[in-house]
Amino acid sequence: MFATRGLLSGGNGDTQNYSSGSEDSETEEYNEYKHGINPVTGCYQEPKPSPTANMTEEQKEYEAMKLVELMDNLTRKGVMKPCRIGADGKPEPIEHVLQLQEGLPRQQVNMNDSDED
């Protein structure tokens, strides 16, 4: 099989039977299920409902605050450090979370302030 596709002969084999485009290899069945295929496992997974679909706004806010508390605990214990991306493209640790706003455009910072009102 490899020899007929030109893989063992240095690319000099008969490649006429090999499909040249990816469109040729996608079947109708694959196109139908393409949206649900997990790229890591290659298996089809049924779409799952959103976990927050049946939650009230108060429940969502409560869960968000729990997440904030957990992240704060990890930060205080030194397990996780907040960072920003430096000029060299690598993460640089920061001392305080408010330092993340220093690099933002002024308009975006003002927009965030008006959301709190």
Textual characterization of the structure:
The protein is mainly alpha-helical. The chain has four helices and two strands, in the order αααββα. The protein has a two-stranded antiparallel ribbon. Strand 1 and strand 2 form a beta hairpin. The mean pLDDT is 78.
Summary?
By secondary structure, the protein is mainly alpha-helical.
Strand content: 5-15%
Structural class: mainly alpha
Strand order of the largest sheet: 1-2
Order of helices and strands: HHHEEH
Poorly predicted tracts of residues: none
Radius of gyration: 26 Å
Whole-number mean pLDDT: 78
Helix content: 25-40%
Largest sheet: 2 strands, antiparallel
In total, the number of strands is 2
Distance between the termini: 68 Å
Number of helices: 4
Question: What secondary-structure arrangement, pairings included, does this model have?
Answer:
Elements lengths: L21 H4 L2 H6 L23 H20 L6 E3 L5 E3 L12 H10 L2
Antiparallel strand pairs: 1-2
What distinguishing features does this structure have?
117 residues, mainly alpha, two-stranded antiparallel sheet, 2 strands, 5% strand
